[in-house]
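Lab notebook: predicted structure, single chain.

Context: the supervisor wants predicted structures on file for every construct in the current expression panel, including those that have not yet been purified. This is the next one on the list. No modifications to the sequence; it matches the entry in the shared construct table.
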Amino acid sequence: MGAASASQLPSGLPEQNLPARFLAARAASERLATGLSDADATVQSMPDASPAKWHLAHTSWFFETLILEPHAPDFQPFDPRFGYLFNSYYETLGPRHDRPRRGMLTRPTLAEVLDYRRHVTAAVLALVESRPSREMAALVELGCQHEQQHQELLLTDILHLFASNPLEPACFSAPSPVATGEPPEPGFIDMPGGIVEIGHDGPGFAFDCEGPRHRRLLEPYRIANWPVTNRAWIAFIADGGYAEPRWWLSEGWAARQETGWEAPLYWELRDGIWTTMSLHGRRPVMPEAPVCHISFYEADAYARWAGLRLPTEFEWECAFADAPVRGNFADSRLFAPHGALAGAAASPTKAYGDVWEWTASAFSPYPRFRPAAGAVGEYNGKFMSGQYVLRGGSCATPAGHVRPGYRNFFPPHARWQFSGLRLAADC
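Prediction complete. Output recorded below exactly as produced.
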């Protein structure tokens, strides 16, 4: 997940609210870590995941390195050694600890990391309360958005860690969903196509990869009014979808053979019932909830099996540009897809949320895209190879962090995110 060009931020965001937004973002991360033991927060379950403790420290390092060190001359680092430990992949900012070995960092302890956070939070708050320049305010806003990205990653990485434990512990107690409704009848929205404008239009926050705004020609198409559900996915499994190579891209079939995929990640058939591991422990699969924890390859195979296709990211954005952002996001603290809840809260014809939705589009630059100078330019541009775009937002995404133009991206084999799909068709 990427970062933004300071030159584009924060348009239309009142600077007087910046201290409150900053404190809210910092507090949200710490609430997610409440209840984790030091061991829970230290262990790394795979190279693509990071320990919760590392996420908490890295987001502090971001504020410390990109904002406090250049803009607060009296600032004293909490521990100068932390720069090496918690740099992610900013080549311009020096060497760093190897990503696959982040789980070896038994020190600093979780308590020390929380002390580090308090040190950085106090210093940034003093800075933003002193009427910062527009450039500095833009960097602080970027830091807040970056922190929200890591809140989602913290949740997905903890889920992968707890799913690797034979005890299958719950990270959170499961709240009861508020009034839910039935999902809308499956159907399609007809879109006329034509020349459309895509990308960030100026007001509000956007990451640099969401612009520049530009025109695209879309042929007439149809897009599903609802993501593919678990019930539909179970039918795909029952029909031998994982065993039939004709539905799969060549690389996808090779990945399926190598890994032995037979169902979404975390699914297990127990006593004839499909179950899934969640942040609330192992639970039965909810038939009407959107399917999640699938790779791009699986999503594409399902679409071919269904006689349809994945939408391009431009078709997706055009269809949902005017849709209200209402659905099941992290603020509900359900931390699992609940399709009926999202259906009750949102328009039955244009709803998104619950799961990120794979698109058919490779993550590549928009016309006239230029990465920003310096470290903030490293985050998105250098990843525009070998990744696919997802749109929408998930049950682990902070509600204020989603918008139709948001371009999430992951490699096509990735499954540990809350990733699902929506179908499309040519008219």
